[in-house]
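cron nightly-structures :: item 1 of 1
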Amino acid sequence: MHEMSTPQPLPWPQALSAFGRCLVDVVRSLRQRRLHQPSANLGRVIAFADGTQATVYRETVHDNGPVTEPVSLIVAFQLRGVGGNRVAHRLFRLESACNTVLFAGFDGFVSKLWMTADHKHMYRGVYEWDGYDSAVDYVRALWWPLMVVSRRDSIRFHVVGESTRASLLDGAHGDSDGSWWQPV
């Protein structure tokens, strides 16, 4: 397992190039109908070991074929200047569909659960990736768009190796230690 409170960002030219490749793959995947937004998990409430909980408001799945090195990735951030403003949170959730081009084409992306903000106004994404390094590379690129809209000190991630999203959410990864990332 690996955790950083703030990911070490990629140099911005590398991140920009990675997002360009991602956009091309998203367009290709949409044409080939390999990107889906299933509804089975919508409304699912997930509790975390830090006492917070959030509700799934969107799911994105990429049909890539068999996963050979499953890892779970949890990303968290707090939007800058939004606080408890319900209208701003609703607008962010609507706008966030456009953000699919920022992740769904990265190498190794399998799925994402989009979580509403918890009572501390922290958003989370619960992902499954194929490949530990691919998940970390994604987060290092993601730092740039997140730092534009988020409090920098709130951006964090946690990668759980040898873990599918389902096994993570079922609590198959040890006792709870009160961590922000750990579903209970």
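cron nightly-structures :: done
The domain at 2-169 is CATH 3.30.70.100 (Alpha-Beta Plaits).
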